[in-house]
Structures are given as structure tokens and as C-alpha cells.
Amino acid sequence: MRHLAASIVALLAATWALSLPFPAATAADIVAAPTGVTIPKGYRNWQVVAPSQRDDKDEIRMILGNNIAMRALRAKQLPFPDGAILAKLAWKRVKSAEFDNTFVPGEPQRIEFMVKDAKRYAPTGGWGFGRFIDGKPADEAAHATCFPCHQVNVKNHDFVFTRYAP
Amino acid sequence: MRHLAASIVALLAATWALSLPFPAATAADIVAAPTGVTIPKGYRNWQVVAPSQRDDKDEIRMILGNNIAMRALRAKQLPFPDGAILAKLAWKRVKSAEFDNTFVPGEPQRIEFMVKDAKRYAPTGGWGFGRFIDGKPADEAAHATCFPCHQVNVKNHDFVFTRYAP
After folding, report:
1. Phi-psi map region of B101: left, alpha, beta (phi>0 left; psi -120 to 50 alpha)
2. Which of A88, A158, B53, B83 could connect to A79 by a Cys-Cys bridge, CB 3.0–4.6 Å?
3. A chain contacts of residue B61, beta-carbon cutoff 8 Å
């Protein structure tokens, strides 16, 4: 009897799951970093804060901001208000095949986000950090390295490295 | 008599000019490069095509696109349709004071635009080129160098160097 009931429940569950339009896609959309940070929709269409480049990792990057972040940066408003999000996109730096001495983005390396929520992320300066490689969140150990570095180096700029490039 | 008439005309012209709300600002707004290209309003808020970096000039750049250009790039539509505009912003590359091995934008060097109008700019691949330094257009000699270089190197990509960085 127990077995039969379990089978019926399983069958009903399977039928329900199959009737959902895109169960897998929905699950993938909300994959969160250990900090709770997820990939914000449409981040690639955000405005630019500034490009940057890092020699030791041989990467070229660009930092984008959502509207709340851009407004704060342009008004030099510190600390950033809740809802501000910054995105960092990093690519391998590769030599342009078409122009000498010029470097362009190669393979994407990772995307990272800083999400401002002063209450929720109080222990890390009011910022939630999220790192994603190939769309998948990095592990807890990787995330534990974010805030200490921002804290040591850019405490006076609300823990944000990048300045607005006019 | 001639002198008097000239004086009256000059006086009337001066009075009229002074009565205009912002004559100087209006004139500055429409300063065009020798090609006719002007600085498009709001270009700093456009989406990013890609960052880039150039060693010989020690510059870091970013290339932005208006909506028509971004749509074409994402759809891999070549040639670009009329109305597409690309903007290149170049800064001196400076070492970050806050993080090792990292380079960020320093002094702005110039902004440049490519405006697609297949008919108007037919002799230069359908693109009008505009270079502005400190808000002022570069001279005709400087502009004469744009198209030949784009023509030699990126004819197969509708004369546009930058590719969309995802």
C-alpha cells in the first residue's frame, strides 16, 4: 500500500513537472552565488563606468552599472544607494590580427557583480558579491576573497575600485 | 551715408545676437568635423561594443554603439544600416594607485565617431568619420587618414574594426 501511494505521488509529480513550460530554464535562471547574488537580467545592456586592464592575468575588462549605480557615480554620491549594481566583465587580452600594437577581448573569463543592499549585506560593506564563470557561480571559498580585498584598498570609495571615466 | 547704414546694420545685428538665449552654446553644439560629422547627443550613455587597448599610444579605449549599431552587431548584420553610429573613447592608460598590475583610464585623449550614411558618405565606404579633441574637431588632414586605414584592414567587416564582445 505504501509503495502504491508513493508511486502515485511520484507519477503525479512527474506529470506536473512535464506540464510546466520550461522547468529546467527557470531553475538555471535563478542559480545564485553562495552570497545569494544572481546574474541580473540585461546587465550586458547597461552603461559603462570604465574599461580596465590587468597585466598579471593578461585580461581586458569593462565595468558596467545599472541606472541606480550610474546616477550615483555621476552625482559622486557615496555610499551607493540600495539597488545599485556594478558588473565586471573580463576577457583574455588578445592581439588584434588587424591592427598593430592593439589588444582586444578574447575568451570571456568571468562576470562579477556587486549588489548594494546595506541591510542584507551589512557584514561585507553593504555589498553582495557574485562571481560567475561560464554562467555558473564560483564556490564559497572564492567569494570569501572578494570583500577583504575591496575593504583594504577602497574603503574610502564605498569599497568600489572603478571610477567613472568621462 | 554708406557708413551710417553699415553702422545701423551692425547695431541691429548685435542687438539681435544679444537677445538670443544661448547663442554661443548653440554654435558650440553644432561644431562639425570637416566631414560634417558632429558629436551625437548622449553618446556616453550608449551600450558597449567592446573595450580595447593600444600599446604604442599607451591608451585604453572603449567602443560604444547607438541602438541601430548594437542591433546590427548582435544580429551580425553587414553592412551596417544607415543611422548606425559607433563611438570610440580613448584615455591615457595609467597605473591604478589602488591595485597592483592594473591599469585604468587617465586623461581623455579624443573621441571619434563613425556615422553610417551609405549615400552621403559613399566615397568613404558609407561612413562619415569624426575626430574630436577636447570637444573640438580635428582638421581635414587628420580626417583624411581615417578611411584609408579602415579600408586596408577591415574591408570585410564593413570597415569596422571592433567586434561585439559578449
Report:
1. left
2. A158
3. 51
- Geometric angle at alpha carbon B100, from B94 and B103, rounded to 5°: 25
Which residues from chain B sit within 8 angstroms of residue A50, using beta carbons?
62, 104-105
Here the cell at position A60 is 581586458
Contact A51 B47 (CB under 8 A): no
For residues A134, A137, A139 and A140, what is the CA-based torsion angle, rounded to 10 degrees?
Answer: 150
Quick one: which of B97, B107, B158, B102 has its CA closest to B133? B107
* Contact flag B98-A54 (C-beta cutoff 8 Å): no
Nearest CA among A100, A118, A149, A113 for reference residue A39: A113
Q: Where are the alpha helices (DSSP H) in chain B?
A: 2-19, 23-29, 67-74, 140-143, 146-154
Contact between B53 and A102 using a beta-carbon 8 Å cutoff = yes
- Does any CB of chain B come closer than 8 Å to the CB of residue A50? yes
The one-letter amino acid code at A125 reads G
Copy the grid coordinates of residue A135: 554562467
Q: What is the pLDDT of residues A4-62, one digit of tens each?
A: 555 555 544 444 444 444 444 455 456 999 999 999 999 999 999 999 999 999 999 99
